[in-house]
Amino acid sequence: MTDVKIRELDWYLRDHLFRQSNKGRLEFKQRMLPSEMIKTYLRYRNDDLGEISQLVDIVVANLLHHHVIRMNDSHSLELRGTLRRLQCSKCYYISYLAEAEELACLRCSSRTLAEFPNKRIKRSEQ
C-alpha cells in the first residue's frame, strides 16, 4: 500500500464523515465504511473491497491517533467533535480538520486556512 493511497483515502473518509455529520450522523461502524466509500465515491467504485478495507483500517487508526474519532463501547466509531472544512490560501487544498487537530493544511502544512466555501456577502447586506 502506498502512502499516496492512504493519504487519498484519508481525505475521502474525512469528507464522508464531514458530510454525514452535517446530516446528523455521528456514529459509524468501521466494517461498513469500505462499502460506504465504494457506494458514495466514484473514485472507489471499481476498487477491490479487501484493499479498501485494509486502507480504511490504516486511516481509522490514524484518525484515532489524531483524536478525530473515538471508539465507543459498542465498537463503533464516533466523531470527537465537529469537523471543519477549510481551504489553504497557499495551495488551495481542502482540509477537514477536527477541533483537536492543529489548524494547518494537510498537504503543505501552511497555517493560512479559510472557511470553505467562502461565505459571500449578499448585496442587500452591504
Give me the number of helical elements.
3
Low-confidence stretches: none
Name the structural class. alpha+beta
Helix content: 25-40%
Question: Can you give me a brief rundown of this structure?
Answer:
It contains three helices and six strands, in the order H-E-H-H-E-E-E-E-E.
Could you describe the 3D structure shown?
There is one protein chain. This protein has 126 residues and is of the alpha+beta class. The chain folds into two domains: 77 residues, Arc Repressor Mutant, subunit A, CATH 1.10.10; 33 residues, no CATH class. Helix content is 36%, strand content 17%. The chain has a three-stranded antiparallel sheet with strand order 1-3-2. β2 and β3 form a beta hairpin. α1 crosses α3 and α2 packs across α3. The longest helix has 20 residues. 21% of the residues are buried. The mean pLDDT is 92.
Key traits:
126 residues, alpha+beta, Arc Repressor Mutant, subunit A, 2 domains, 3-stranded antiparallel beta sheet, 36% helix
List the helices and strands and how they pair.
Elements: H1 3-22, E1 27-28, H2 33-40, H3 49-65, E2 69-71, E3 77-79, E4 83-88, E5 94-98, E6 113-115
Antiparallel strand pairs: 1-3, 2-3, 4-5, 4-6
Helix pairs in contact: 1-3, 2-3
